[in-house]
Amino acid sequence: MISKLTVIVLPTALLIAAIVPGLGLTPSPSTAESRPPAPVPTPTQAENEAQVLQVLQIQLLAWNRGEIDRFMEGYWRSRDTVFVSGDTMTHGWQTLRDRYRTRYSDPQKMGQLAFSEIEVRMFGYDGALAFGRWKLERANDRPHGCFTLVFRKTSDGWKIVHDHTSTAEGS
């Protein structure tokens, strides 16, 4: 039979051991280990804007090296990605990749890409709008126009989710 002393003393001893560090059966963690991790600071608008511009810079370099797959890393890899040009709407990352690979099948067709007058407008902490001008330098022509890109911050970084690119008349 359990004595009244065991019923009172044992739970009390366990409670004290749990509350007072050093009295328990396991070593107590150091002060640094017992603190919750510091929160990761939310990037500033300027930091987010710089990351969006970096995506465009990586795309520009990839394009000018003829690396369409690397260029496509700037787009959200989703069926919901949208590309609009002229009267054509392309839905889905894979469809867009296939379109680029067909239209720009060799370095001469790709030419050298340049961006200018880029502006980035942040909305919220995970959305951005980028717009500016683009120009291709190719042997036989120099098409150019404007673009508007909607970016979303994903677990993989900033990605283009919607691209509306126009070509200037006569290009």
CATH architecture classification name of the largest domain: Roll
Oligomer: single chain
The count of β-strands is 6
The SS-based structural class is alpha+beta
Point out poorly predicted stretches.
none
Beta content = 25-35%
Quickly count the helices.
Answer: 6
Any idea what the shape is?
elongated
How would you characterize the largest beta sheet? 6 strands, mixed
Helix content: 25-40%
| Cα-based radius of gyration, to the nearest Å | 28 Å
The structural domain count equals: 2
Describe this protein's structure:
With 171 residues, the protein is of the alpha+beta class. The protein folds into 2 domains: 4-33, no CATH class; 45-167, Nuclear Transport Factor 2, Chain: A (Roll), CATH 3.10.450. Helix content is 35%, strand content 31%. The protein is built from 6 helices and 6 strands; from the N terminus they run H-H-H-H-E-E-H-H-E-E-E-E. It has helices spanning 4-19, 31-34, 45-64, 68-72, 93-103, 107-110; strands at 82-85, 88-91, 112-123, 127-137, 144-154, 157-167. A 6-stranded mixed beta sheet has the order 2-1-6-5-4-3. A hairpin with a 2-residue loop joins strand 5 (144-154) and strand 6 (157-167). The longest helix has 20 residues, at 45-64. 13% of the residues are buried. The mean pLDDT is 85.
